[in-house]
């Protein structure tokens, strides 16, 4: 079973600051998906297949990585980016989906 | 517009049962795998169940296997989660999600709150 470890657990960033969130897998995976969840709302798909932005996601966001290390980067933090971000991976054998514990990104 | 609307949540005593429903619209429901994901209060996301397009294959994590059953009615564009032998640790918001290629959850409902307490 793959375990996803996100870091940091919580962080604060100022408007305009560059932000990088990390997700590490316990064994090599082919891709990573990322979700954004603002307080009191449902999760939204944010980045899929490691680097593809979901519909409506601003291009200040980017995703990268391979093997066991993946990251989500915000080029220039904006107020609306304050949220919790979860990474997620799925597998066929065994058939399951795994989420990381999340990184809470706050506005400084 | 893709819409997923959960219903059926509520307060239930430990050991009892509850059935959640999810009404889908805005896409061809029968073409997609579907899933349930839950979130305990102040906690992260936990995958609960997945069902194939026809309903013939279902998948669960060990935490709910044998207690929860996912099902679907393609004619009604509806997804269900039957939860039996509920425990306090099942208290959570339950989200219905559409599963796209590569195991991505590309659309989510607003969630149904389930509280298991005496």
What attributes does this structure have?
A: seven-stranded mixed sheet; three-stranded antiparallel sheet; B: 118 residues; mainly beta; seven-stranded mixed sheet
How would you describe the overall organization of this protein?
Chain A has 108 residues and is mainly beta. Chain A has strands at 4-7, 10-13, 19-29, 33-37, 44-48, 52-53, 61-74, 83-92, 95-99, 103-107. In chain A, β5 and β6 form a beta hairpin. Chain B is mainly β and 118 residues long. In chain B, 0% of the residues lie in helices and 52% in strands. In chain B, the strands form two sheets. In chain B, strands 2, 4, 5, 6, 9, 10 and 11 form a seven-stranded mixed sheet that branches. In chain B, β7 and β8 form a beta hairpin. Chain B is globular, with a radius of gyration of 13 Å.
Please describe the topology of this protein:
The complex is a heterodimer of chains A (108) and B (118).
Chain A: E1 4-7, E2 10-13, E3 19-29, E4 33-37, E5 44-48, E6 52-53, E7 61-74, E8 83-92, E9 95-99, E10 103-107
Parallel strand pairs in A: 2-10
Antiparallel strand pairs in A: 1-3, 3-7, 4-5, 4-8, 5-6, 8-9, 8-10
Chain B: E1 3-7, E2 10-12, E3 18-25, E4 33-39, E5 45-51, E6 58-59, E7 68-73, E8 78-83, E9 92-99, E10 105-108, E11 112-116
Parallel strand pairs in B: 2-11
Antiparallel strand pairs in B: 1-3, 3-8, 4-5, 4-9, 5-6, 7-8, 9-10, 9-11
């Amino acid at each position: 079973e793959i375990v996803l470890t996100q870091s940091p657990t919580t962080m604060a960033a100022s408007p305009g600051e560059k932000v990088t969130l990390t997700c590490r897998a316990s064994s090599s995976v082919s891709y990573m998906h990322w979700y954004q969840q603002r307080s009191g709302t449902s999760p939204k798909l944010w980045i899929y297949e490691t680097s593809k932005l979901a519909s409506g996601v601003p291009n200040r966001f980017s995703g990268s990585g391979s093997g066991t290390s993946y990251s989500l980067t915000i080029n220039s933090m904006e107020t609306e980016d304050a949220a919790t971000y979860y990474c997620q991976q799925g597998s066929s054998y065994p058939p399951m989906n795994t989420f990381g514990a999340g990184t809470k990104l706050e506005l400084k | 517009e893709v819409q997923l609307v959960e219903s059926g949540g509520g307060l239930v005593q430990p050991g009892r049962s509850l059935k959640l429903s999810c009404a889908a619209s805005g896409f061809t429901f029968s073409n997609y795998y579907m899933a349930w994901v839950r979130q305990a209060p102040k906690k992260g996301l936990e995958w609960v169940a997945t069902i194939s397009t026809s309903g013939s294959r279902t998948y669960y994590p060990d935490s709910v296997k044998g207690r929860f059953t996912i099902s679907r009615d393609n004619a009604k564009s509806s997804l269900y989660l039957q939860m039996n032998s509920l425990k306090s640790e099942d208290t959570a918001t339950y989200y219905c999600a559409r599963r796209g290629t590569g195991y991505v959850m590309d659309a989510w409902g607003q969630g149904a709150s389930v509280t298991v307490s005496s």
